[in-house]
Amino acid sequence: MEKYIQPFIEVCENVFHEFVGCDLSADRPYFEVKETINDWDISAVIGLTGEARGAVVISMKTSLAIRLTDILSGSSHTDLDEEVVDAIGEIVNIIAGNVKKNLEESFRLIISLPTIIQGKEHVIKWPTGQARIICIPFNIFENETFVLSVAIESIKGA
After folding, report:
1. Range name among 27-31, 60-64, 154-158 with the lowest pLDDT average
2. 52-80: pLDDT as tens digits
3. Does pLDDT of 105 surpass 80?
4. Cβ contacts of residue 104 below 8 Å, gap of 6+?
5. Class for domain 2-154, per CATH?
6. Contact 118, 85 (CB under 8 A)
7. CB–CB of 123/35 below 8 Å?
8. Domain locations in the chain?
9. Closest CA to 132 of 103, 152, 148
10. Could you tell me the end-to-end alpha-carbon distance of the chain, in angstroms, rounded to an integer?
11. Is 2 helix (H, G, I), strand (E, B) or coil?
12. What is the SS3 assignment for 48-117?
């Protein structure tokens, strides 16, 4: 499991360092129960298909989504407007695209376009099946956090 999660941590740290200009620290990953209600305001989802299937999801509070978009766009935002939604979708797209490259030794993957879920205490409907959901919490700035959630299972030979 470690060999599949480590690329997600490294890519996430690199993407935020290169594109946002800030450093992250990853906390200990944990398994999430499907259909858990979380305290996030926005989640961006990328589906994975090919020799493996699953999803990569980044979830955060509105304040962090706005702050990241302000840094990336150089403009000021006050709510989850279209530019903020697009920015969070692009962040997860870059993360998934870079992880795809890192996992090509194990799986040939196809990634979907980002899907955005908004709303307080929203629930992500993960596909039923064997894949467990691994959440990697990250600390950013002084007191902000977000989670990168990953569920991936091999379907080679299926």
Report:
1. 154-158
2. 788 899 999 999 999 999 999 999 999 99
3. no
4. none
5. alpha beta
6. yes
7. yes
8. 2-154
9. 152
10. 20
11. helix
12. EEECEEEEEEEEECHHHHHHHHHHHHCCCCCCCCHHHHHHHHHHHHHHHHHHHHHCCCCCCEEECCCEEE
